[in-house]
Amino acid sequence: MSTARLTINLDALVTNWRNLDALTNCETAAVVKANGYGLDAGRVGKALARAGARNFFVAAAEEGGALRRALGPGPGISVFSGHMEGDAKLLKDFQLTPMLNSLDQMLRHFETLPGHPFGVQLDSGMNRLGMEAGEWAAVAEIALGQNPVLLMSHLACADEPGHGMNARQLHTFRELTDGLDIPRSLAATGGMLLGSDYHFDLCRPGIGLYGGLPFKDALPVVQLNLPVIQVRDMEPGESAGYGNAWVAKRPSRIATVAAGYADGLHRAMGQGGIQVYAGDTPCPVVGRVSMDLITVDVTDLAEVPDMLAILNERQTVDMLADAAGTIGYEILTSSGHRSARTYLG
Ligand SMILES: *Cc1c(COP(=O)(O)O)cnc(C)c1O
């Protein structure tokens, strides 16, 4: 078998959820959009529901339908993109709660699904999703008359605790929602770490559950092991891979390993000085990342194992992300489409 092996530790995921939950005095939900950040929303959702999570968030109604099938009735499932044209049947059949983002969505919702639970997403300055202050002022009375289950907004710069945007958005969110006596939510992972002012009634962590920054204390959740297909000896001056990008400076042993940019090992990592691990021993990835393969300098290993690890306790999704000039979120959501998966816990 020449596909990568992705191991997902659901016990570590649950521990991350519990540790985030312990930071606040409010409810901790879980964001499982993009198929649970690539790790399988159903498996992730079931593990967290068993641990006590009562509310889940997805990006689109379609994702909510798949999650409801996995979770069964009971847990709340909310949809960030709100109530889009054509969503009514999905929202109703799978008991999904849209976070309404505009007057248009609100009218659509009240018309097609009167009495169906909803929340409202407010824009506190990110200018991405949600009603702006003027729009909210115009419809708040009507919306509040229909008993929204949540008023929420999202922080643009929560991963930078010192950024002035955080306090500005907090202030705006409070102006829009103080005194309304409806449950409120502002914080994702980053916001949870900004302190209790940001917690309100419910927090919505995503990346921290899956082991990513800005939750520095997160346990790693994913391991990615790559099979070695072939090992060869090279003379000084010989080159490996596309574009002759790497040239041996000494007699070298090169392992060809089964994963490439189609497996989420971004091609830009080739310039980033990343390693793969033989047990605890790091070995540099050399040459270009190709679609299905990378080449690794294993000259200093006494013995080349069958598998080399590219994600493990030592090398996190954020370290791989740095090497590729991206963020842990993108590494998670782009890894593992072709891998054989094992779930622990
Ligand atoms: C993705 C998302 C989250 C979760 O964010 P993390 O940074 O992954 O914790 C929360 N709320 C909204 C609106 C989101 O889009």
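^ pyridoxal-5'-phosphate complex. Residues 31, 33, 80, 154, 188-190, 204-208 surround pyridoxal-5'-phosphate (CB under 6 Å). The first strand starts at residue 5 and ends at 9.
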